Amino acid sequence: MAEKLTEEFINYLSVERGLAENTLESYERDLRQYSEFLLKKGEGGVRGATHDTILAYVSTLKRHGYTPSTISRKIASLRGFYRFLTRERYIDKDPTLNLASPQIEKQLPTVLTTEEVNILLEIPDITTPAGQRDKAMLEVLYATGVRVSELISLKSSDVNLDMGYIRCYGKGSKERIIPIGSIAMRWTKEYMSDGRVKLLQGSDSEILFLNRRGSKLTRQGFWKIIKKYAKEANIAKEITPHTLRHSFATHLLENGADLRSVQEMLGHADISTTQIYTHLTRGKLRQIYDKAHPRA
Fold first, then answer.
1. What CATH architecture does domain 2-87 belong to?
2. What is the pTM of this model?
């Protein structure tokens, strides 16, 4: 029964909410783990769960060493699931009501300096098809700040090199148009006319960035690529797939871009999400102040 209800919920998130594939997979993993907990504890199944059941599950997560942010996400998955079950009248009472999420200490994202970005972007070997792809991919990522899931889903038709913009589809399949710089345009053009043709190996695909088999690159594939280049560039910072996205936003704000414009380019629904980058630029403001103010 739990599997059937989970399947219905995931289908609802996909069809009616239009959530991305990786988000759906995350929900599915969280709910599968919860179902396994219920099965082991004999807690009466998904429909028989109470507020105390959820509290016991959260305690188990804490004992297993999950971070507050991960626990908070798993609680959010359960909230969404039980709201759905209540609305569809599978249950009478939502056991997640009044459930507090753990306090999360806001951690600032890792950001590269412009020098580190420049070094990283020079690492790919542009004499090979894969190197041309990687060079274009990293340049586009830093030039536009798109999410990795958006980057690997780009189609050739989403890139307008004549007008200088890309079109991508973010969370909830929302379309946005983002300007792309001349350097990223140049390397993308070169990749499309040479490296991409070789990676296709005579096959056909709409996807822009391809793996060595001529298929769509995966998130895991991209993750391995950027980790490899960061190591070769001797960057000691903890790199994540979104490091260049964070660097893009921070460098724009440091150089005078307004917050609303950055919000729009990043595809944030709420400007408070974008405001985290203002914390990262305060050190730069201090430097400017110390240098410019006569009595600093």
1. Orthogonal Bundle (1.10)
2. 0.67
